Amino acid sequence: MKKLDFHVHICCPGVPAAEMEENFRDMIKRHDLCGVGIMALHHVDEDFFDDCNDIALRLRERLPGSYAFAAVRRDRDLVEQAKEIQALGFDGIKLLDGKPSEYRFFGSGYETPEYDRFFAYCEAEQIPLMIHNNDPRANWMETPKTPKLREKGWFYGDGDVPSQEEFFRMLEGVLRRHPNLRAAIAHLGFYYDDLPRAAGLLEACPNLFFDMTPAVPVFVELSARRDEAEAFIRKYHDRLIYGTDASADMRDGNSPYRFNNTKHEIMDVFYEGDTPREVGKAGYHIEPVRLEPYMLENIYYNNALRFMNK
Fold first, then answer.
1. What pLDDT, in 10s, does the model give residues 198-220?
2. If we measure between CA atoms, which residue out of 56, 65, 118 comes closest to residue 88?
């Protein structure tokens, strides 16, 4: 059964492109993948990565069976960038501005007039968009993980960004205005505790997909409502896409390498396991769902190609 990791990142300044290629080749071999979906990103902090689009195209050529999504910048016209990206032959565009930390920097997300023009153009051209919107609800709450989240800029409980619900509403406003947008919403859109709301979006938007890439809380929360999650996945097995959110900086058994292995194990148990298991050092409790092979084939491979109109 083919398995395509459709959501990996190359936003690793200081890591040479040749090393990124080597790391992804190793991951593909270790996890028996047929390729990767390379998602380029521009950062808003000191890790700004100016040549990520060039590297994404280069890696696509070097990694057979792989695809490349370009990043856009807020300091240039978005529609003109979309046209340039089309001309360069990218498979789609990756968007990050719905992540609350990006909103904090720019003071806005996808609700601006410029983004609305961009979405109208992408809808008309049927350009595939991988859209990150929102973050886990725990990022707004004081927990033992708050110090680490603060360090990364991912704690939002100080009132300097909108609520999680407001980020949901902003995305849903985009989809109401552009219901035929060809989009995959990353990390199940963080709707893991409101699957009827996610289902409503799939029913209203015929070209919408959900990318099932961890954030680990996605699979922990789905496991906590296993029966509901199974029913949702069985119904929409042709609208869900597999990926790991792997970083190109997976070297020498370092933290990204180990965390990627944990995420693979989480999804192996969730999609194909026989019994519940505690996974990783943190003891993530994962409950398997029961899916037919053709459903797994869709999630693992076919849906990514449908999303890209391949």
1. 999 999 999 999 999 999 989 99
2. 56
